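Listing 4. Sequential folding, example run.
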Amino acid sequence: MDTEHQTPRAAFGLFVGVDDYRNEIVPDLNYCCKDAKGLSEAFDTRPSAVTMLLLEQDATRRNVLTQLNFMMTHAEPGDLLLFFVATHGVVKYNDFFFMPYDADPQNLLGTGISSKLLINALASTIHRGVECLIVFDSCYCGAIGFDISKSQTVGKGGLSCLFSASPLEKSIESPSRRQGIFSHFMIEGLKGKAARDQTGPNQMKPVYLRDLYDYVYSRTKRATQQQQHPVLIGTLDNETVLNEISS
């Protein structure tokens, strides 16, 4: 395996969830906060993990960008930065916007956070050699309007985006599971169900990016009767390690 893609030495995770928005015209969601909290707890089992959880009124545009900047500043070459968002999503101005707690649908450019803004903000961090993974659990989140591999973010590190749904699909919540379906399987996979078995005694079982995606894709598609198809794009190596599970 390429030595550039060994287990990152430290891991930073920022997890954002909003169910009840400040603006009353924005419909409420049900399980975004639970999904963000569950994935944060799963990621926090990783050695040397630094996590931040922003829920409801704490998940303002300013707070999200401030905490992301903090993690970008402190991440070193070879580290992993995971940014997870479970909120409403909107496609407008040829871009995908996720909606923080204080978002105004009539002023998305000023109150939403676009995928282009987010990815361009990460550019300098990626150029320093940090491996970045963005995970969106939002409707229509596959509608990023440009090719990551051809953007200014290509550098020593890497950037990939894992979307809960393709551009024309909704991200479905499950009342029986009391979770978003995609996030449910993300949490399962990150906790170990997507881990690759090792042959040696007492070896840690890695959860690789591609293995996690394959696990989440097949189960999300099945659980939604093929109404939802997660998408993975970007430049990270398939064997980027997202977690390690004790044998």
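-- end of first protein; second protein begins --
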Amino acid sequence: MANLFIIAAPSGCGKTSLVKALIEKVDNLCVSVS
């Protein structure tokens, strides 16, 4: 079973930086921006 993580925060809090770091370190990570 897969895990779902939601990264939610106001603008300028570093969401994109966090997701970019996770993409580099975690295999089979899928990202969806909505």
